[in-house]
Amino acid sequence: MNNFKLEVFTDYVCPWCYLGDSRVKKLKQVYEIDIELVHFPLHPETPIEGRKLLDLFRSSQKDIDQKNQNMSELMKKEGLPYNNRTYTFNSRLAQEIGTWAETLEKNSSIHDYFFEAYFVHGLNIGLENVILEVVEKSGLDMKEAKNIIKNRLFSDVIDQHWKKSASYGVTGVPTYVYNKQSIVGAQPLENLFQFLDFFNVPKK
What we know:
Layout: E1 5-10, H1 15-30, E2 34-39, E3 51-52, H2 53-57, H3 61-78, E4 87-88, H4 92-102, H5 110-119, H6 128-137, H7 142-151, H8 155-167, E5 175-178, E6 181-184, H9 189-198
Parallel strand pairs: 1-2
Antiparallel strand pairs: 1-5, 3-4, 5-6
Helix pairs in contact: 5-6, 6-7
């Protein structure tokens, strides 16, 4: 832990966050900075069974296909696997488990696996069985994860994340905050470098 911290507001069902996560990893390779993930309620009203993107965006199938094509091209350039989406899902419980994982030493992979489950395999990450598959793939304790889900032990923590998002005035993700200054969106890596350089964040 050092004195240089970048807060990243994010959600597992946000494609721009998936893209941004890849760029944050590259930042970590260059700068002496800690990353604090703050989970954001992108579509908190989404039912447990999910919601069609057609309904979410109130658009035509042609528009959805174009969005998927554009996103697929961006992901390919970034070197990220991606399959066309038809649904969005409720990420609240996944956020709770992801936050639990951050309290453990072995925590780095679970965020990747949640993104993979949704953006590559199209799985409903709002479902307990899918979340537990991600937990198992991450090598984390299944029994403890089941207890956390059953008793919602990290619900209050995510409530605080959502309140923090509101208090910071975050309305879209990803949002990057350093020293109370922010930039929004899946910024090019060069922009993120410039952002940290402005604050004289040391390089490795």
